[in-house]
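Researcher: For the record, we're logging two predictions in this thread. I'll number them. Prediction 1 follows.
Model: Prediction 1, sequence and structure:
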Amino acid sequence: MDVEELLAREGIERLAGQYHMAGDRGDATAYAALYAEDGVLVSMGDALNGRQAIHDYIAGVRSTNYGGARQPTYLHHQLCTHSIEITGPDTARGKAYFTVYTDCGPDHHGTYRDKYVRVNGTWLFAQRKVDTQWFSPDCASGPGKDG
């Protein structure tokens, strides 16, 4: 592994950390800024194209009640088993597992499948596919409760 690859990996790891911190805070502006201008977020079967669509979706998530269980007062994302493959000087792809904890306990978990792009020296999401595989019956921080 050369220095350029190490720097790319570090930039992508930083991106992942910023993503979770912005999401946990409910900061839709910071969250959307982590995507390329034409970036795509695929979640719950919906594809959100571009920063504005991603921003608007994240801004509305915390105001939605997804099925009657009480809403959590905080979110803490935990990322693990993050694999990164550098595919070009300014492109990469990755996969990671995530678990979200709230004041309700373990809330939901799943897998991210990502495409990354470096724009003006900064790594961003070109595409993130979120596959949430489980939701707790005790809390309601995400869609999927009503089938």
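Researcher: Logged. Prediction 2.
Model: Prediction 2, sequence and structure:
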Amino acid sequence: MKKLFIFCVLISFATIVSANATINYKVKETTRVAIQSAITTGGNATIGLVLFAPKYELGIFGGGKIIDNNSKTELFTPGVFGGGRYFITNSTIFAFGLNLLGKFGKDNGQNIKQYYGIGPYVSLEQMLTDHVMLSIWYDPYFYEYEKTSKETTNTHDFGSGGLGLEYLF
């Protein structure tokens, strides 16, 4: 399911990029702050604040998921990310960097005592208007440490991704 989601997002983004010739917007060469809303392949909805500069980006976000059935999942997931940016066209940007996540609450009925996750990301960002940007990202590798009633560590190759919409000020 994750691979299908990522494939659909990449095809959608490729369509936007190929139509880039008709978009006459040029990315401003200034540093701007944005509000970001996003959804990830894990089902978390997030909202955050991002600093976009011509050569780098830094962001902080918080997200969560509540499933009110037998799984008893109530999660809050804060995180930070940061990395470099490279212009592909006037309105399309390739970005790369590092994600760092935390997780608090219950997951499948298990109380999370300690959690952290870290991994690199790659992203494509497309300016749609002067103030609206669409972004997709993907974590090619992700490491997680989680302590519930038992201690677990996981690594994920081709871990997760997401789709975000930013409003830039």
